[in-house]
Amino acid sequence: MPSAKPRANASLGLEVWAIGSWDELIGLRSQLAAAGRLIEVGDPSVLVGPDAGRYRQYIRVHVRTSEGAR
């Protein structure tokens, strides 16, 4: 059971499947890195068919949360 007491320096683990242009993926990785720590960054996959020209990438990140945030 989670503690009701807020912890300083708490973090939230996120797993993201990002889909977008190459530049959008670079921007997202930069924003996530600024918010926390990138744990795993998969190789971008080129999409085909209706999504041709876009990429899909797996990103796992720990994001810092403010003290007492829920």
What does this structure look like?
The chain is α+β, with helices and mostly antiparallel strands and 70 residues long. The chain has a single domain, classed as Dodecin subunit-like, CATH 3.30.1660. It is built from 1 helix and 4 strands. Strands 1, 2, 3 and 4 form a 4-stranded antiparallel beta sheet that branches. Strand 3 (45-46) and strand 4 (55-64) form a beta hairpin. The longest helix has 14 residues, at 22-35. It is elongated and about 50 Å long. The model has no long low-confidence stretch (mean pLDDT 87).
Measure the end-to-end span: 15 Å
Gyration radius from CA atoms, angstroms? 15 Å
Compute the number of strand runs: 4
Strand content: 35-45%
How many distinct domains? 1
Per DSSP, the total helix count is 1
For the record, the CATH architecture stands as 2-Layer Sandwich
By helix and strand content, what is the structural category?
alpha+beta
CATH topology: Dodecin subunit-like
Averaged pLDDT: 87
- The geometry reads as elongated
N to C succession of SSEs:
EHEEE
Low-confidence blocks of residues: none
Helix content: 10-25%
CATH top level class name: Alpha Beta
Main β sheet profile: 4 strands, antiparallel
How would the blueprint of this fold be written?
Blueprint: E1 11-20, H1 22-35, E2 36-41, E3 45-46, E4 55-64
Antiparallel strand pairs: 1-4, 2-4, 3-4
Labels describing this entry:
single chain, 70 residues, alpha+beta, Dodecin subunit-like, 4-stranded antiparallel β-sheet, 1 helix, 4 strands, elongated
